[in-house]
Amino acid sequence: MAGGVDHPPSLFHPIFEAITDHGQHVPGWLSCWGLIENTHHQAEFLDAIICSGIAISVLIALVAAGRGKLQKVPGKLQNVLEWAIESLRGLTIDLLGPDGPKYLPLMGTLFLYIFFNNLIGLVPGFKSPTMSVSTTLALGLTTFVCVQTIAIKANGIVGYLKHFMGDILALAPLMFVIHIAGEFAKPMSLSLRLFGNIYGEDNIIAVLFKMGYPVWLPVHLPMLAFGIFTAFLQAFIFTSLSCIYVQGFTEHAGHEGHGHDHDHDHDHGHAHAHGQGHGHGHDHGHDHKH
User: What is the mean pLDDT of the chain?
Assistant: First the structure.
């Protein structure tokens, strides 16, 4: 029972029963060493691990198949893969500017991983790993660590800390606390938004399936079609917000770098003009003396 909705067991429920001796002896890793006490949630956790592994394997197989048959005149699979890469590259450029492609490996991986994990739940007998808060929380925390690492690399540790203090020195202690709280809220926001949408979608599909099952009426099929769009949309939103979080730090670093370059150009131009003036005065004195 999850949120008042009975979900049929997945294809991998027998594996859970075999591992736990029908729920009597649960290994520590499966209960996260006591953090997951409910047997139903433990089964969902195992489903998320297995289905996530399958989604990753399918994604790797598709990329390997497309890369292994590269042609000057691309086939259907190569066309799809190239279109996906160019679309993700365009997204990073739109949100992060000219340096966007530098972050394509991270953002592209996030999008594809989430998209395939959302889609797999539409296959009968499988469950979306993203309807488990353990998966979405792991995604949120991973994104948080990556963004902070990018921010420190782009700004340096001093510039990174200055970013949290704001522009007004008198308000720096207050702004520092507010900004730190905001940063820690971002992974929670990312994870709960993704979890809530996919969990709600899967619950609706389960309800519609139960309504039509007694009379063999597939009333859930329209929702399955809509689920494909939702799978894309939620992956797109998560990736876009991750880009925006990165942009909030890299834009600050870019402004500082631009300011330094402007000062350098100004000093260089001033020195150049001074040198020209000095040389002109010297030549004029020489002509006058002559």
Answer: 84
Residues 169/160, Cβ–Cβ less than 8 Å: no
* 34 exposure class (CB count in 10 Å sphere: 0-12, 13-18, 19+): exposed
DSSP 149-190: HHHHHHHHHHHHHHHHH-S-GGGHHHHHHHHHHHHHHHHHHH
- Which structure tokens are listed for 156? 């340096």
Q: Identify the bridge partners of residue 5 per DSSP, sorted by sequence position.
A: 2
Which of 76, 84, 83 is CA-nearest to residue 107? Answer: 84
Q: How much is the pTM?
A: 0.82
pLDDT given for residue 169 in this prediction: 84
Q: What is the pLDDT of residues 10-51, one digit of tens each?
A: 889 899 999 988 878 888 888 888 888 888 888 989 999 999
Q: Quick check: 139 and 191 in contact, CB under 8 A?
A: yes
Q: What is the pLDDT of residue 31?
A: 85
**Could you give the CA distance from residue 114 to residue 231 in angstroms, rounded to a whole number?**
8
Report yes or no: 139 and 114 within 8 Å, Cβ to Cβ: yes
| CA-to-CA separations, 272 to 214, 252, 263, 269, in angstroms, rounded | 87, 30, 14, 5
Lowest mean pLDDT among 149-163, 175-189, 226-240, 264-278: 264-278
Query: What amino acid is encoded at 190 in this protein?
Result: L
Other residues' Cβ atoms within 10 Å of the Cβ of residue 195: 22
